[in-house]
Amino acid sequence: MQAIILAGGFGTRLQSVIKNSPKPMALIHGKPFLAYLLDYLKFHKITKIILSVHYLREQIQIFFKTNYEGMDIRYAIEDQPLGTGGAIVNAFQYIDTSESVFVINGDTFLQLDYEAMLAQHHKMSSVMTIALRKMANCSRYGVVLTDGHRVTGFGAQGSNSAGLINAGVYLMKPSFFQEFPVADSVFSFERDFLFHRIEQLCPDAFIVDDYFIDIGVPEDYARAIKDFASGRALV
Q1: Which of 95, 144, 176, 197 keeps 20 to 30 A from 204, CA to CA?
Q2: Distance CA 130, CA 198 (A)
Q3: CA distances from residue 105 to 5, 99, 125, 179 in whole angstroms, order as listed
Q4: What is the pLDDT of residues 138-164, one digit of tens each?
Q5: pLDDT < 70 positions in the chain
Q6: Ranges of each domain in the chain
């Protein structure tokens, strides 16, 4: 199995606590957050990784090189910020076109059965499957709307109701951008692409109710440090 990890962002909201490091390289007990994520992916038999990098990318390249714990590492370099959508399109040139590819945010950790998600993806013959996490309060992320096993739309942020959120893990056919071409090289995958083409895409939903953390803000980074120390988020 293979995965693209989006690791090129500036992490502006986290700079007050990590300073001069890419967000995925934020240390948790002396080990980069990204290393925990890769360890988890290896456990779930993902062996090929494309790291989409931009901001202070040398730190990531020096640490992980081209092989990490037996995983093949390639780098899709953004010479300028491309947004999440542009970064995914750029990284697609490095994928194995014989199999679907996971796309994962490099600042989130989700306990997810990747093999089960892939099996459902194939069973449903989906062009894309989205991992959705059950939340008691969706205000930070916005609610994802579903009809059965299909994603049908996205609600605005601010609602403190319970529901499903986009957990930042996608599974996409290798022909995805051939079937759904894009004109822009710089765009947000969620805001500029997914929200507007959801009816056309008709993605499948893979619903998860396990541990989830997004270290994008200092409070949740602190929580990750505590959780990872207890082993709560580990394999």
Answers
A1: 95
A2: 12
A3: 6, 20, 24, 23
A4: 888 889 999 989 999 988 765 678 899
A5: 11, 157-159, 231-235
A6: 2-230
In the three-class reduction of DSSP (H, G, I as helix; E, B as strand; rest coil), residue 120 is classed as helix
List Cβ neighbours of 147 (8 Å cut-off, separation of 6 or more).
none
Element (H, E) at 67: strand 67-68
Closest CA to 206 of 139, 114, 140: 114
Domain 2-230, what fold?
A: Spore Coat Polysaccharide Biosynthesis Protein SpsA; Chain A (3.90.550)
Global confidence as pTM: 0.94
Closest CA to 213 of 115, 70, 112, 127: 112
Contact, 44 vs 131, CB < 8 A? no
- Cβ–Cβ under 8 Å, residues 28 and 75: no
Residue 190 burial (10 A CB sphere; 0-12, 13-18, 19+): middle
Count the neighbouring beta carbons within 10 Å of the beta carbon of residue 149.
Answer: 14
pLDDT in the model for residue 235: 54
Give the list of residues 6+ apart from residue 47 with CB closer than 8 angstroms, or none: 1, 2, 70, 71, 72
